[in-house]
Each structure stands twice: as C-alpha cells, then as structure tokens.
Amino acid sequence: MSLDRRKFLYAAAAAGGAAALPGALWRRAFADGPAQPGPSPYGPLRAADANGLQLPEGFSGRVVARSLQRVEGTRYTWHPAPDGGACFPDGDGWIYVSNSEVPVVGGASAVRFDASGRVRSAYRILNGTTLNCAGGGTPWNTWLSCEEHDWGLVFETDPRGEADAVARPAMGRFKHEAAACDPDRRVVYLTEDQGDGCFYRFVPETWGDLSAGTLQVLVGSGPGAVRWADVPRPEFWWTPTRDQVDGAMRFDGGEGCHYSDGTCYFTTKGDGRVWAYRAAAERLEIVYDDDLVSGEAPLTGVDNVTASASGDLYVAEDGGNMEINIITPDGIVAPVLRVVGHDESEITGPAFSPDGTRLYFSSQRGESGFIGGTDGRTYEVTGPFRR
C-alpha cells in the first residue's frame, strides 16, 4: 500500500472517531488510527494440542461435535458446514446453537450442556431452510438464523427446540449474514454479504415481537455522521433492498455483527475492516483495517465477531491462518487461538458461555476443506478469559 493511501485511510479513520466515544468499549482517541498489533493479554500461543488447537498457557480445548457424526453421549448427528452460533442460559447449564451453511437442508442445531460442561443432549431447532450463515441472539433468548441468498429470510428459532421456528419476512429479503439486537433503542442490526451490500436495522412495532416493523438502511458518505432511511419494499421487490434508497452506504461483504454497550460492531471481509456504529451519536468509525497496521496484519479475512463483558472483541478469520484474534479496548490486536491443519476452512460461530469461561466456535470445513462442510468441527476452549 502506498504511503499516500495509508495517510488517507488514517485521516478518514481519525475523522470518523473525532467525537466522544460512548459506551465501555474503545474509549481511547483515534489519533493513532485503528487498532494495531501488540502482545496478547493472554501471552503467546503454545504448540498445537491433539486437536490441532494452539492456545495460550492456562487454556485447554476439546472437540464438541463433528459433522455427520453423532455428538458424544447423544444419538444426534451433527450438521455439515457449521456456521454462526450463540450461547443461551438453560437452568444451571447452557445451550450452544449453530447454523448449517448448506443449501436446501441448512437449518440449525443445538447442544445442551449441564453446569459442569458435560453434554446433556443435541437436537435440531430449524429445518427446511437454505444456506443458514450467521445470525444473532435476542434478549428474549431466541436465535435469529439468517439465510445467505438473494431472497434470504431471518428465522426466529427456539434454542430449546420446544417451539416451532418462524420466518420474519418484515426483516427483509436479501443475502442476510448476521443480526445483533440493541435493547436500548429496541432495534435489530443486520449485515448483508454482498460486495456492494448495506448495513440495516429493523425497528419492530413491538419490542420482543419481530413479526412487523420497519426495515431501514444506513445512509452516509463514509466514517462520521450517518443516518437511517426506510426501505420502501423490504419483503417483495423487483429492485433489491440495497438499491432502493439513494445514498445508502455500501460495504464490501458484510459479515459478523455484535452489539455491546451502545455500539454495534460489524465486519466487512472485502476490505478487512471492523466497524463501530456508535448508536447514540449516530456515528460510524473504523476500529480495525488490515491495510492500516504497522507490519504484517495479524487479523485477515475478518468474519464472525463477538465480545466479552470486559470490552474485548473476538474476531474470527475466514481463511487467514485460522485464528480468532482479540481486539482490546486500548487498541491491541493479537491472536488468542489458532487451528492448525485446516488451511481450506474458516472459523465460524464464536460465542461465550453465559459465565464467560468457555468459548465455542467451529472450523466449518475441517481438515479436508471440502466445500460441503462434511468435515466440520465444533470446539470448546476453556480458560481464564477476561470478564
């Protein structure tokens, strides 16, 4: 990258972050530009364990499920191509849900754990959908499973598998990627996996009921002040939702999305960026850009994202060197785990258990790298995560 381009990108990032930053995350000034490589708060990664996981000292990992094999201790066969995921409380235990990014029979599954972390059961929570990529949890403990195709829908599912899944067409038909609920403004943010995609929010008529409401798209010219505009025809269209509003901001391949303490963070894979939408101020900022790091970028192929209560972001890689990287509130980027030998795969579905001590995620295509995801693996990493 040329020096002139680097200076321009730094200036743009700094301009976007000039206002005071609300929330607990990212209080530092942007005078030094977006986050930079540095030492991990957990220390360096050790040699790979028997499962091919490189982890810091004090951390351990295990395989929870493998695609097309029975989940240990159950009679349930885990789905192929595991993708987006989330954890939900369940009595004194918890549930991890996971999408399946395959056509026609995609859907989603769940694994239930007891208080000790032992698998109690595994089961299906969504059937008859296609290319279920990412999604997001709701404050009322349902899972929003998102279809990634041009007429894709959001399906609201029950992690316990007791209630039928319901399509939510009012949230728009487009190439859905991820969803993140903002309980403060009572909206749901949505990303779109297109090279010229948009960033949306859904405003329900009644919070907690996603059957009706207004889909809006972010309008602006870059980092800085932005606004929202209604999408006229979100459900049935001749013109795609991303092309219905003049001035709608374009994002190069929207991926993961996570809301925390006044800010919605989302990633765009085409330009290797992590964005922050500061909801109260209606400002957009660049948290990380792999073109703006000093030296070699530790985080490439940005994809799914989650956060811990400590204010740390955890960003999974699609490709790269198969890592999950931490981005700390003081702007340090560093790997916290790496999956070895899965060179043609991607890391998906990072999510913390409710107590913050366990991190779940998947290698979508496993060691084989087969596009159908029949070698997918879902992991659990336990350790002293910052909480």
TrEMBL record:
InterPro entries (alphabetical): 6-blade_b-propeller_TolB-like, PhoX, TAT_signal, TAT_signal_bac_arc
Please give the superkingdom of this protein's source: Bacteria
Tell me the Pfam families matching this sequence.
PhoX
Q: What is this protein called?
A: Alkaline phosphatase PhoX
